UniProtKB/TrEMBL annotation:
Keyword Oxidoreductase carried by entry: yes
Name the record gives this protein: 3-oxoacyl-ACP reductase
PROSITE patterns (UniProt xref): ADH_SHORT
Pfam family, one: adh_short
UniProt family annotation: Belongs to the short-chain dehydrogenases/reductases (SDR) family.
GO MF annotations, alphabetized: oxidoreductase activity, acting on the CH-OH group of donors, NAD or NADP as acceptor
Keyword Oxidoreductase (UniProt): yes
Keywords associated with the record: Oxidoreductase
């Protein structure tokens, strides 16, 4: 794929942050329709108005992806009203910081797993049959995190949810190839901290700058079009992943914790205002 021109693109967490940027990119490339899913009605309406472009249908849907029924109902409406997406960007996510024993089981642990891990699976399951039956190429971009590649204090549940996304997403890629459905490409994005507001207060580890969302979206979009299996940003994420596999655990803890400062990166985390909502992207 060289672009999404003439295609239906669905973006979750589309009202702000990187989700809004993915929507902008789809419009610029001349998508047939851009379907926007978010839980924030006001921000969703504002983004839909901002993206309004002659020749491109903008279809906003108010969806709570933490609820499976909300996902299935919205997916049914999208298929009936717009069509089955050829491009799915599972971007929506939330973050909870703090020691695991201080998390509320329902508000923190369960909600994080539902939004970050279960929802992308359920959303993909809704639209994959149509993608598989399609004659042309389709793409799925699953937004994971560098937190899914290395352990980090004060983000245990978030890390667990992103580890789940990475394992599922790349397994799905292999299953599609093995079953002869290679025209459906799956890309897993695992970035470090991005300046969207979601990780306000977090400190980038040594040699790992907090990245601009526009930079990440540019790289992720190109990787998705090319059906690149993995994109880890910046390069230090790949380095950390390799060292984690090569070094004895105590040696890696020293390198990651004492030298690179990974284990202290969430010490001053504050997060975006009103972080307790699954609308964040």
């Amino acid at each position: 794929m060289k672009s999404v021109a003439g295609m239906i693109v669905l973006v979750t967490g589309a009202a702000m942050g990187m989700g809004r940027l993915y929507g902008q990119r789809a419009v610029l490339e001349g998508a047939k329709a851009v379907v926007l899913w978010d839980i924030d009605a006001d921000a969703l309406a504002a983004t839909a108005a901002e993206l309004a472009t002659p020749g491109v249908r903008i279809a906003p849907y108010l969806v709570d992806i933490s609820a499976l029924k909300s996902i299935s109902d919205a997916a049914g409406r999208v298929r009936a009203e717009v069509g089955n997406p050829e491009v799915l960007i599972n971007n929506a996510g939330i973050v909870r910081s703090g020691y695991f024993w201080d998390h509320d089981s329902e508000r923190d642990t369960e909600l994080t797993m539902r939004v970050n891990a279960i929802a992308p699976m359920q959303i993909a399951a809704e639209f994959l049959p149509g993608m598989i039956k399609g004659a042309g190429p389709s793409r799925i971009l699953n937004v994971a995190s560098a937190a899914g590649t290395v352990s980090n204090p004060k983000m245990s549940v978030y890390a667990a949810s992103k580890w789940a996304v990475i394992g599922w997403s790349d397994s799905l890629r292999l299953e599609l190839v093995r079953a002869g459905h290679g025209h459906v490409g799956v890309t897993t994005l695992a970035p470090s901290y991005i300046s969207t507001g979601m990780f306000d207060g977090a400190r980038g580890p040594l040699l790992t700058p907090i990245m601009a969302p526009e930079y990440v979206v540019d790289r992720a979009w190109a990787a998705m079009l090319a059906a690149r299996p993995f994109l880890l940003l910046p390069w230090t994420v790949s380095l950390g992943r390799a060292l984690n596999g090569l070094l004895p655990q105590r040696a890696f803890d020293f390198v990651a914790g004492r030298l690179f400062g990974v284990y202290r990166s969430m010490d001053d985390f504050t997060g975006r205002v009103a972080q307790q909502s699954p609308k964040k992207s």
